[in-house]
Amino acid sequence: MKVLIITSNDYGWGAAAAAFLRDYSSKIEAVSASCSQPNSKDSLVKEAMHECLINLEDETTLWNPEVNPQSFDVVMNLEETYPCPSSIEEARRIRDDIKNTFFLWLRAQGKIE
Description:
Elements: E1 2-7, H1 13-24, E2 29-34, H2 43-50, E3 61-63, E4 74-79, H3 88-109
Parallel strand pairs: 1-2, 1-4, 2-3
């Protein structure tokens, strides 16, 4: 299953969600795309993800115009749901919410191995 995660910003949450999806199932091909020109990911987002043994430095966020959504089975839009964190505690809370949200979505799809 090919999954595209679109974010309106480039703090790193789309890349985090894509990494979690790939972590949950080897049958998932997940990528993230940002509506704004991708920049470096927020340092607190990277730190929170590193605690889960996921290195966001290895994750590429595409720029939305470079991506054809029709080539994906599922397109998910994160909108403004996940802001740039102001503390590591907030980054951990957001990370855990993303992790749980995407786990429950995959389980509902019957895609958890």
